[in-house]
Amino acid sequence: MKVGIAYDLRQEYLAEGYSDEETAEFDRPETIDAIESALRDLKFETDRIGHVRNLVRRLAVGERWDLVFNIAEGLAGFGREAAIPALLDAYGIPYTFSDPLVLSLSLHKGMAKNVLRNMGIPTADFVVIQDVSETEAIGIPFPVFAKPVAEGTGKGIDAASRIGTQEELVAKCRQLLEVYRQPVLIEKFLPGREFTVGLVGTGAKTEVVGVMEVILKDGAERDAYSYSNKEHYERRVEYRLAEGSIARLAARISVEAWRKLGCRDGGRIDLRCDERNVPSFVELNPLAGLHPVHSDLPILSRLAGMSYVELIGRIMASAMERVDSG
């Protein structure tokens, strides 16, 4: 079987003049090397495609693949992660991970929380604002937490994201609106333990790989798994496989959210506990990072005893069921 690999290579965008932060979600060469090596170990023929413009050019000259392993994040807009899946749907080419609807919905954290809250998934109170003047009437008691509505990798999150006063809220929202040019999500601050749940599979066959607790060490930015903490995770963050009743509840919430939204093949869901130690949904990551060493899902899988090749194999097995069923 011929498997194309679609991705956004960070160094290509840096060469075009984009900044380190603008390209933070894009992949390093070693990620693509690791995915391709795993696919070959699994006996697939591979073909590197790259970003959406390369895909357009190659589709236009008639090239096709039996399946595309898609990890491209896209560059702009709320639908940027959905661009390649939408193109592949138009050409009838199967691909890994979720469809354009799920990828667009999950990227807009406010929309995702609205939908999941209506589905009964526990979600902290939140609002989405598009102007600083809207901070006067958010209706959520302090402290609150503010971040861009559609960024990943902790972009826009730092020590000032936990907000205790109206003045701090105005300052943080003004900064986020100016820098990221998109609405700001403001939510009740959850002071408890933070988890990320790794998932593989689709629908009724969804399985939990593991529940990983994210523990900030001394010297880390406080109260947030921020962009800076992720960049320096070796010194600032401890990752620990979580067990017990709270971890089981986090896993159950995650599987329910994954199935109800129609997520596919593999990814992560982030949760955080409130003051009563009850976990709530925070973010959905249906296109999770796959760097074999640094990304959360491979770290979690490794802690749970699942090798990188096995993780890629489980993702492919889930996607292949759609190929086999036509």
From TrEMBL:
Q: Which residues form the ATP-grasp domain?
A: 113-317
Task: Provide one Gene Ontology biological process annotation.
Answer: cell wall organization
Enzyme Commission no: 6.3.2.4
Q: Does the keyword ATP-binding apply?
A: yes
The reply on keyword Signal is no
Listed A to Z, the keywords are:
ATP-binding, Cell wall biogenesis/degradation, Ligase, Nucleotide-binding
- One GO MF term, please? D-alanine-D-alanine ligase activity
Q: What class of enzyme is it?
A: ligase
Signal peptide location: none
The record's listing under SUPFAM superfamilies reads: Glutathione synthetase ATP-binding domain-like, PreATP-grasp domain
Matching entries from Pfam families are given as:
Dala_Dala_lig_C (PF07478)
Q: Which family does it belong to?
A: Belongs to the D-alanine--D-alanine ligase family.
From the Swiss-Prot or TrEMBL record, give the protein name.
D-alanine--D-alanine ligase
